[in-house]
Design goal:
Distance between the termini of chain B: 36 Å
Helix content of chain B: under 10%
Number of helices of chain B: 0
Largest sheet of chain B: 6 strands, mixed
Structural class of chain A: mainly beta
Strand content of chain A: over 45%
Low-confidence stretches of chain A: none
Low-confidence stretches of chain B: none
Largest interface: A-B, 24 and 22 residues
Number of helices of chain A: 0
Oligomer: heterodimer
Number of strands of chain A: 11
Shape of chain B: globular
Order of helices and strands of chain A: EEEEEEEEEEE
Number of strands of chain B: 11
Strand content of chain B: over 45%
Largest sheet of chain A: 7 strands, mixed
Structural class of chain B: mainly beta
Chain lengths: 115, 109
Amino acid sequence: KAGVTQTPRYLIKTRGQQVTLSCSPISGHRSVSWYQQTPGQGLQFLFEYFSETQRNKGNFPGRFSGRQFSNSRSEMNVSTLELGDSALYLCASSSGGTGTNYEQYFGPGTRLTVT
Amino acid sequence: KNEVEQSPQNLTAQEGEFITINCSYSVGISALHWLQQHPGGGIVSLFMLSSGKKKHGRLIATINIQEKHSSLHITASHPRDSAVYICAAIKAAGNKLTFGGGTRVLVKP
Protein backbone atom coordinates (compact mmCIF):
# COMPACT_ATOMS: atom_id res chain seq x y z
CA LYS A 1 0.00 0.00 0.00
CA ALA A 2 1.21 3.49 -0.76
CA GLY A 3 1.81 5.66 2.29
CA VAL A 4 0.39 9.03 3.13
CA THR A 5 1.41 11.65 0.60
CA GLN A 6 1.50 15.40 1.02
CA THR A 7 1.91 18.07 -1.60
CA PRO A 8 3.73 20.27 -2.00
CA ARG A 9 6.73 19.28 0.12
CA TYR A 10 8.13 22.80 0.32
CA LEU A 11 6.45 26.14 -0.08
CA ILE A 12 7.50 29.75 0.28
CA LYS A 13 4.80 32.39 0.64
CA THR A 14 4.61 36.05 1.53
CA ARG A 15 2.77 37.54 4.49
CA GLY A 16 -0.86 38.18 3.70
CA GLN A 17 -1.11 35.47 1.06
CA GLN A 18 -3.08 32.28 1.46
CA VAL A 19 -1.94 28.71 0.99
CA THR A 20 -3.57 25.34 0.40
CA LEU A 21 -1.88 22.10 1.38
CA SER A 22 -3.00 18.66 0.27
CA CYS A 23 -2.93 15.27 1.93
CA SER A 24 -3.79 11.90 0.39
CA PRO A 25 -4.34 9.21 3.02
CA ILE A 26 -3.54 5.53 2.81
CA SER A 27 -6.09 3.77 0.67
CA GLY A 28 -9.06 2.73 2.80
CA HIS A 29 -8.31 5.17 5.61
CA ARG A 30 -11.18 7.53 6.27
CA SER A 31 -9.70 9.69 9.00
CA VAL A 32 -7.20 12.47 8.31
CA SER A 33 -5.65 14.63 11.01
CA TRP A 34 -3.52 17.73 10.54
CA TYR A 35 -0.71 18.94 12.79
CA GLN A 36 1.58 21.95 12.94
CA GLN A 37 5.15 21.62 14.15
CA THR A 38 7.31 24.62 15.04
CA PRO A 39 10.58 24.84 17.00
CA GLY A 40 8.91 26.97 19.66
CA GLN A 41 5.57 25.23 20.15
CA GLY A 42 6.42 21.71 19.07
CA LEU A 43 3.65 19.57 17.61
CA GLN A 44 0.11 20.88 17.86
CA PHE A 45 -3.14 19.34 16.71
CA LEU A 46 -5.00 21.37 14.09
CA PHE A 47 -8.08 19.34 13.17
CA GLU A 48 -9.35 15.91 12.25
CA TYR A 49 -11.72 14.88 9.49
CA PHE A 50 -13.65 11.67 9.08
CA SER A 51 -15.98 10.96 6.18
CA GLU A 52 -15.92 14.61 5.06
CA THR A 53 -16.88 15.90 8.53
CA GLN A 54 -14.64 17.80 10.91
CA ARG A 55 -14.61 15.73 14.09
CA ASN A 56 -12.13 17.63 16.21
CA LYS A 57 -10.44 20.99 16.17
CA GLY A 58 -7.42 22.33 18.01
CA ASN A 59 -6.89 25.82 19.34
CA PHE A 60 -6.01 27.66 16.16
CA PRO A 61 -7.54 30.84 14.74
CA GLY A 62 -10.19 30.75 12.05
CA ARG A 63 -7.54 31.50 9.42
CA PHE A 64 -6.79 27.79 9.55
CA SER A 65 -9.43 25.69 7.85
CA GLY A 66 -9.70 22.37 6.19
CA ARG A 67 -11.92 20.03 4.31
CA GLN A 68 -12.12 16.43 3.26
CA PHE A 69 -13.38 15.07 -0.02
CA SER A 70 -15.42 11.95 -0.71
CA ASN A 71 -12.24 10.04 -1.64
CA SER A 72 -10.82 10.93 1.84
CA ARG A 73 -8.22 13.29 0.43
CA SER A 74 -7.94 16.37 2.60
CA GLU A 75 -6.82 19.93 2.16
CA MET A 76 -5.98 22.57 4.69
CA ASN A 77 -6.01 26.26 3.97
CA VAL A 78 -4.32 29.10 5.79
CA SER A 79 -5.47 32.57 4.86
CA THR A 80 -3.76 35.89 5.54
CA LEU A 81 -0.43 34.23 6.31
CA GLU A 82 1.68 35.50 9.19
CA LEU A 83 5.37 34.97 9.82
CA GLY A 84 4.47 32.72 12.74
CA ASP A 85 2.71 30.31 10.39
CA SER A 86 6.10 29.14 9.16
CA ALA A 87 6.15 25.50 10.19
CA LEU A 88 6.16 21.88 9.16
CA TYR A 89 2.57 20.82 8.49
CA LEU A 90 1.96 17.12 8.90
CA CYS A 91 -1.04 15.08 8.12
CA ALA A 92 -1.77 11.58 9.35
CA SER A 93 -4.35 9.04 8.36
CA SER A 94 -5.90 6.23 10.31
CA SER A 95 -8.49 3.57 9.73
CA GLY A 96 -10.55 4.32 12.79
CA GLY A 97 -13.68 6.30 13.32
CA THR A 98 -12.09 8.72 15.73
CA GLY A 99 -8.65 9.04 14.24
CA THR A 100 -6.64 9.88 17.29
CA ASN A 101 -7.71 6.66 19.02
CA TYR A 102 -6.16 4.59 16.28
CA GLU A 103 -2.63 4.19 15.01
CA GLN A 104 -1.68 7.23 13.00
CA TYR A 105 0.30 6.98 9.76
CA PHE A 106 2.11 10.22 9.04
CA GLY A 107 2.97 11.85 5.76
CA PRO A 108 6.36 13.46 5.10
CA GLY A 109 5.03 16.94 5.79
CA THR A 110 4.91 20.24 3.95
CA ARG A 111 7.48 22.78 5.07
CA LEU A 112 5.93 26.24 4.76
CA THR A 113 8.09 29.33 4.99
CA VAL A 114 6.38 32.71 5.23
CA THR A 115 8.53 35.74 4.40
CA LYS B 1 2.54 23.86 33.07
CA ASN B 2 2.08 21.74 29.95
CA GLU B 3 -0.50 18.99 30.11
CA VAL B 4 2.06 16.49 28.79
CA GLU B 5 5.64 16.64 30.03
CA GLN B 6 8.57 14.58 28.80
CA SER B 7 11.94 13.97 30.38
CA PRO B 8 14.74 14.21 29.68
CA GLN B 9 14.74 16.79 26.89
CA ASN B 10 18.04 15.48 25.58
CA LEU B 11 19.78 12.18 26.09
CA THR B 12 23.13 10.88 24.88
CA ALA B 13 23.94 7.20 25.19
CA GLN B 14 26.66 4.84 24.08
CA GLU B 15 25.72 2.08 21.71
CA GLY B 16 24.35 -0.88 23.63
CA GLU B 17 23.07 1.10 26.59
CA PHE B 18 19.53 0.89 27.94
CA ILE B 19 17.53 4.08 27.41
CA THR B 20 14.41 5.26 29.22
CA ILE B 21 12.24 8.22 28.23
CA ASN B 22 9.48 9.37 30.55
CA CYS B 23 6.13 10.99 29.83
CA SER B 24 3.81 12.41 32.49
CA TYR B 25 0.40 13.91 31.87
CA SER B 26 -2.02 15.84 34.00
CA VAL B 27 -5.29 15.25 32.15
CA GLY B 28 -7.56 12.26 31.83
CA ILE B 29 -6.62 10.29 28.79
CA SER B 30 -8.05 7.40 26.81
CA ALA B 31 -4.72 6.33 25.31
CA LEU B 32 -1.21 7.52 24.57
CA HIS B 33 0.96 7.41 21.46
CA TRP B 34 4.72 7.17 21.25
CA LEU B 35 6.14 8.64 18.05
CA GLN B 36 9.62 8.68 16.53
CA GLN B 37 10.80 11.56 14.36
CA HIS B 38 14.01 11.33 12.38
CA PRO B 39 15.99 14.31 11.04
CA GLY B 40 14.14 15.57 7.99
CA GLY B 41 10.81 15.42 9.75
CA GLY B 42 9.32 12.00 9.03
CA ILE B 43 7.24 10.70 11.92
CA VAL B 44 6.59 7.05 12.63
CA SER B 45 4.07 5.80 15.16
CA LEU B 46 5.81 3.34 17.49
CA PHE B 47 3.05 2.43 19.93
CA MET B 48 -0.44 3.31 20.97
CA LEU B 49 -1.36 2.02 24.40
CA SER B 50 -4.09 2.47 26.95
CA SER B 51 -2.87 0.06 29.63
CA GLY B 52 -0.02 -2.21 30.55
CA LYS B 53 2.91 -2.80 28.29
CA LYS B 54 3.72 -3.29 24.61
CA LYS B 55 6.92 -4.56 23.03
CA HIS B 56 8.20 -4.34 19.49
CA GLY B 57 11.71 -5.53 18.84
CA ARG B 58 14.04 -3.60 21.14
CA LEU B 59 11.37 -1.07 22.08
CA ILE B 60 9.11 -1.41 25.10
CA ALA B 61 6.38 1.01 26.13
CA THR B 62 4.57 0.97 29.45
CA ILE B 63 1.76 3.03 30.86
CA ASN B 64 0.35 3.45 34.36
CA ILE B 65 -3.02 5.15 34.07
CA GLN B 66 -3.40 5.67 37.84
CA GLU B 67 -0.01 7.38 38.11
CA LYS B 68 -0.50 9.24 34.80
CA HIS B 69 2.87 8.14 33.55
CA SER B 70 4.28 6.31 30.55
CA SER B 71 7.78 5.21 29.69
CA LEU B 72 9.51 4.23 26.48
CA HIS B 73 12.51 1.94 26.84
CA ILE B 74 15.10 1.16 24.19
CA THR B 75 17.17 -1.91 24.92
CA ALA B 76 20.62 -2.45 23.36
CA SER B 77 20.53 1.01 21.79
CA HIS B 78 22.00 1.54 18.33
CA PRO B 79 23.07 4.70 16.46
CA ARG B 80 20.05 4.27 14.16
CA ASP B 81 17.85 4.85 17.23
CA SER B 82 19.04 8.48 17.21
CA ALA B 83 15.87 10.51 16.75
CA VAL B 84 13.36 12.64 18.61
CA TYR B 85 10.81 10.63 20.56
CA ILE B 86 7.46 12.25 21.25
CA CYS B 87 4.61 11.14 23.46
CA ALA B 88 1.10 12.27 22.63
CA ALA B 89 -1.84 11.86 24.97
CA ILE B 90 -5.37 11.38 23.68
CA LYS B 91 -7.46 13.51 26.02
CA ALA B 92 -10.51 11.64 27.23
CA ALA B 93 -12.59 14.77 26.79
CA GLY B 94 -12.80 15.49 23.10
CA ASN B 95 -10.32 12.88 21.82
CA LYS B 96 -7.75 15.56 21.06
CA LEU B 97 -4.06 14.78 20.85
CA THR B 98 -1.78 16.77 23.15
CA PHE B 99 1.93 16.40 22.57
CA GLY B 100 4.93 16.36 24.85
CA GLY B 101 7.92 18.48 23.91
CA GLY B 102 9.96 15.55 22.67
CA THR B 103 13.17 13.88 23.80
CA ARG B 104 16.18 14.16 21.50
CA VAL B 105 18.16 10.92 21.68
CA LEU B 106 21.69 10.55 20.35
CA VAL B 107 23.31 7.14 20.42
CA LYS B 108 27.05 7.21 19.84
CA PRO B 109 28.88 4.24 18.32
